[in-house]
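Consider the tokenized backbone below.
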């Protein structure tokens, strides 16, 4: 569905309708108007009515949540636009900031702080001057046109967020298809790593998405390390997952086929390419302390 206009409420601005408009701008180079909607706006499917209007009717371009009952699961205008774009489930999985944003908009700072298990003063310390300025400038506008500075910034934000979600989903699907879970035996007990083989063409960032994939996989809790193609050479990178202390890559720093081992032991680079040699290097690095457990 394409739109000829995006309409949202006047007055103070919040992160939910700001980001919802950003997402819509990414695929619709149209003006934003900030005023109360008329009945004709709500019936016109070419006008996106965001965070105002009292109805959620995406087929008509209407994305409001204020009519939901107070015990409704936290959903804001941003949530509804993400659902419309088919990106909501991935956003909930990959954007750690989304659920707190939903709570803040629908439950307020006191309940959100309680839900997060932090004091309200801690929540306030997370405020950014970037957020404050963008929201204040947006609130001061009655109409934004393509080409204006704030409009273009909002379009960048929406474009980057959509690209992040779509590219990450493709990346996770690729890792699911090509990655391997290795169980590596050692004298200190076996451990598990995720291995990503070298493919052609090689992704710009071969390690991108590995952590998210592990977190979302049913067996991911077993993984303590990652092995992935080195984008700067023909070998592989070795790293801890979640900084698991049982892997210390300084233990292979003297190996001829290891050309870099960080002094803090969390990452190394090797020219080795065979799975057998990679497993040998990993085994040398594994020495968990009592009580370390698995990640």
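A designed sequence for it:
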């Amino acid at each position: 569905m394409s739109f000829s206009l995006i309409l949202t409420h006047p007055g103070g601005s919040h992160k939910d309708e700001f980001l919802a408009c950003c997402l819509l701008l990414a695929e619709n180079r149209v003006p934003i108007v900030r005023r109360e909607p008329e009945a004709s706006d709500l019936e016109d499917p070419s006008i996106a009515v965001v965070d105002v209007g009292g109805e959620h009717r995406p087929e008509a371009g209407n994305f409001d949540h204020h009519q939901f009952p107070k015990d409704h699961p936290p959903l804001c205008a941003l949530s509804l636009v993400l659902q419309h774009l088919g990106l909501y489930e991935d956003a909930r999985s990959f954007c750690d900031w989304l659920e707190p944003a939903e709570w803040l908009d629908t439950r307020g700072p006191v309940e959100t702080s309680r839900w997060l298990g932090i004091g309200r003063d801690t929540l306030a310390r997370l405020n950014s001057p970037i957020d404050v300025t963008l929201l204040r400038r947006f609130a001061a506008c009655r109409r934004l046109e393509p080409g204006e500075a704030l409009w273009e910034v909002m379009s960048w934000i929406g474009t980057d967020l959509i690209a992040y979600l779509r590219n990450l989903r493709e990346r996770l699907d690729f890792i699911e298809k090509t990655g391997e879970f290795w169980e590596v035996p050692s004298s200190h007990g076996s451990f598990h790593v995720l291995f990503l083989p070298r493919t052609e063409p090689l992704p710009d960032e071969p390690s991108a998405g590995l952590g998210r994939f592990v977190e979302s996989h049913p067996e991911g809790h077993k993984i303590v390390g990652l092995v992935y193609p080195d984008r700067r050479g023909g070998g592989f990178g070795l790293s801890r997952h979640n900084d698991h202390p049982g892997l210390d890559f300084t233990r292979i720093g003297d190996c001829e086929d290891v050309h870099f081992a960080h002094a803090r032991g969390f990452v190394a680079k090797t020219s080795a390419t065979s799975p057998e040699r990679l497993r040998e290097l990993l085994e040398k690095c594994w020495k968990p302390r009592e009580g370390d457990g698995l990640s």
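The two ends are 44 Å apart (CA to CA).
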